[in-house]
Design goal:
The protein is mostly helical. The chain has seven helices and no strands. Keywords: Cell membrane, Membrane, Transmembrane, Transmembrane helix, Transport.
């Protein structure tokens, strides 16, 4: 039994609760959880997931800073939709990162799932950036990442983590609806 994996999964549930509520407390938790998963993923040969956990840790610091930089007179950064002008650049970044990581994993590692690992990693980079900017569609990106990751983790015998990501996928649906509601409320106040 991997106690580190269990600890990471439990902290992940706490993270999810804070994210669902659009609470700034998701950010400190988002620094702790990936620190644990760097080790867990490396142990089972999910190298891109291990590296993406380093990114998550750094993105957690960035997201925390982004959410904190709004002054009390301006209020908290509101939830908003992703500007359409960002969709093409985000897609290009997704494709480039996906191909680069996939090639590296296929040629330089013993990964048994290089392209799946690469896909979830590339999309996670985009989703985490969207979360830092409080774009509601980040939930849709996470839904795809979580569903694919759930299957990968079952394949890799990471059952607690697979359960966590299955739960993430379900809650991503509810999170999207909740954030849409928050976005609509902030538009009504304007």
């Amino acid at each position: 039994m991997n106690y580190l994996e269990i600890a990471g999964a439990l902290i992940g549930l706490l993270y999810l609760w804070f994210e669902y509520r659009a609470s700034i407390w998701l950010w400190p938790v988002s620094v702790i959880m990936p620190a644990i998963y760097i080790v867990v993923y490396y142990q089972v040969g999910l190298y891109a997931d291990s590296v993406i956990s380093i990114y998550y840790l750094l993105a957690g610091i960035y997201g925390w800073w982004m959410w904190l930089r709004h002054t009390p007179d301006k209020g908290e950064k509101p939830v908003s939709g992703t500007p359409s002008k960002l969709l093409l650049p985000m897609f290009v970044v997704l494709l480039v990162v996906f191909v680069l990581i996939g090639i590296i994993l296929e040629t330089c590692t013993d990964s048994t799932v290089p392209w799946w690992d690469s896909f979830t990693t590339a999309l996670s980079i985009i989703a985490m950036w969207m979360l830092a900017h409080k774009y509601v569609e980040q939930w849709l990106a996470w839904l795809v990442v979580d569903a694919v990751s759930c299957g990968i983790y079952v394949y890799k015998d990471l059952y607690f983590t697979s359960f966590l990501y299955g739960l993430y996928a379900v809650i991503a649906c509810f999170g999207y609806l909740k954030w849409k509601q928050l976005m609509n409320l902030s538009y009504e106040r304007v």
